[in-house]
Write a structure and sequence with these properties.
With 246 residues, this protein is of the alpha/beta class. It has a single domain, classed as Rossmann fold. It has helices at residues 43-50, 72-77, 95-102, 104-108, 114-124, 126-130, 141-153, 171-186, 198-204, 222-225, 229-236; strands at residues 3-14, 17-28, 32-36, 57-62, 65-66, 80-83, 159-163, 190-195, 207-212, 215-221. The strands form two sheets. It has a six-stranded mixed beta sheet, with helices on both faces. The protein has a four-stranded antiparallel beta sheet with strand order 2-1-4-5, covered by helices on one side. Helix 3 (95-102) runs parallel beside helix 7 (141-153). The relative contact order is 0.18.
Length: 246
């Protein structure tokens, strides 16, 4: 199975500080790959570089084609989408309008299937259908995360990158979000998942990378890392998880 995205020696610097150091990472079609690690490990920075949001050195391949200077436009055109940690919804716009904006790239290319695609999103997230006229600002944390994922799906990505999708959510909603991640794989969408909730991420992923201080310190099958003593001691020892809004 060929890789959709491949990072080779990906390095990101902020001045003299090396936030991501020579990371190699691959993700193939229909695969869920997770990047776990502590706060400040460089996980979100790595996603930013992969999406073309941050300048990096090393090599980025999209469909095995080297991207000399990857840009957001290039990655989106290649079927890559990103749901950022802060979700970045249009708070004073309705659910429906947020979704339509998510499909704007396809509309600009002459593909007029936004309403059809919206129905597919509503089938995945019935709660959004019920609230389609509601302003994004009035949604709960879980509903905002659903909308952010739904908006990204409007562009029909082949690879969806999720940055901390469980951040700030109650445990029940966290379970629902990870069920959605599994459904994305069933739909044929590859997922690159950055997540601090290591247990939930490893349970849903095929493969995993452990990032510490900007460098990959461990990689392997997610099902095996769940039982790795170092991972258990460092990341899985506490059953609780951050919870705030629901």
């Amino acid at each position: 199975m060929s890789n959709i995205l491949e990072l080779l020696g990906c390095t990101v610097r902020y001045g003299d500080v090396e936030a991501v150091s020579a990371v190699n990472l691959q993700i193939a079609a229909g695969e869920i790959v997770t990047v776990i690690g502590p706060n400040g490990a460089g996980k979100s920075t790595l996603l930013g570089a992969a999406m073309g949001l941050l300048p990096s050195t090393g090599m980025i391949r999209l469909d095995e084609v080297v991207q000399a200077r990857p840009s957001v436009e290039t990655m989106v055109a290649g079927g890559v989408g990103l749901v950022p940690e802060k979700r970045e919804l249009f708070a004073e716009m309705s659910i429906e309008d947020n979704l339509l904006l998510g499909g704007f790239v396809r509309w600009r290319r002459g593909q007029r299937d936004q309403r059809e695609r919206m129905e597919e999103v509503f089938e995945m997230f019935p709660r959004l259908r019920e609230r389609r006229a509601q302003l994004a600002a009035t949604l709960s944390g879980g509903e905002r995360q659903m909308l952010a994922i739904g908006r990204a799906l409007m562009a029909r990505p082949r690879l969806l990158m999720l940055d901390e999708p469980s951040l700030g959510l109650a445990p029940l909603i966290v379970r629902e979000v990870f069920q959605i991640v599994s459904r994305l794989r069933a739909m044929g969408v590859a997922v690159l998942l950055v997540e601090q909730n290591a247990r939930a991420a490893l349970q849903v992923a095929d493969r995993a990378y452990v990032l510490e201080m900007g460098a990959v310190v461990l990689t392997g099958q997610a099902s095996e890392l769940l039982y790795d003593r170092r991972i258990i001691d460092t990341y899985l020892g506490v059953g609780g998880h951050r919870s705030a809004e629901s």
